[in-house]
Amino acid sequence: MEHNCNDENCTHESHEEMVEEEAQFEELVENNAVVLDALIDLLIEKNVISEDMLTAKIEQIATEESSEEEDEDEDEADEEDVDSEAPASN
What are the domain boundaries of the chain? Predict the structure, then answer.
């Protein structure tokens, strides 16, 4: 089957290659989730961290990442404003 990707930077030679790569990626994500769950269970079991501490840390990181994304969005908007205000050169 012909590869029908709209991404100009795509390196896939065929649709099958793209599908296979996506399947491998999904398998990797699932395997990483299993390992992460096992590590968290061990940390809690060994009293290295409590579930409450883990939840608080996750919320803290999510909040920090969210505010960083907002800052990046604001920076991009500011750059666009500067670009639109710049005089056109002839």
Answer: 14-45, 50-76
